[in-house]
Write a structure and sequence with these properties.
The chain has a single domain, classed as Double Stranded RNA Binding Domain, CATH 3.30.160. The chain is flat, with a radius of gyration of 13 Å. By secondary structure, the protein is of the alpha+beta class. The protein contains two helices and four strands.
């Protein structure tokens, strides 16, 4: 898991190595913000763009994100 910082917000991003090659990324706070890339670095750049685009398209999500929340990691 990585934390991508966009503007003034921090987002939790899950990066997965894909079997067919490259990587995919999903922002946990914004389920519609997903991306991919050939390298981890490219994937992180792309997910930042996806997050910015998502927040531009859905500005009301910025208010929802201001609600107090707690992120915990659970291992099974």
């Amino acid at each position: 898991m990585s934390r991508a910082k966009v503007g003034r917000g921090k987002f939790t991003v899950v990066i997965r190595e894909e079997e067919e090659g490259g990587y995919s990324a999903q922002c946990l706070e914004l389920p519609g913000a997903v991306s991919e890339g050939e390298t981890k670095e490219e994937t992180l750049r792309n997910i930042r763009d996806a997050i910015e685009g998502f927040l531009e398209a859905f500005p009301e999500e910025k208010e929802r994100l201001k609600l107090k929340r707690e992120v915990v990691e659970v291992s099974l």
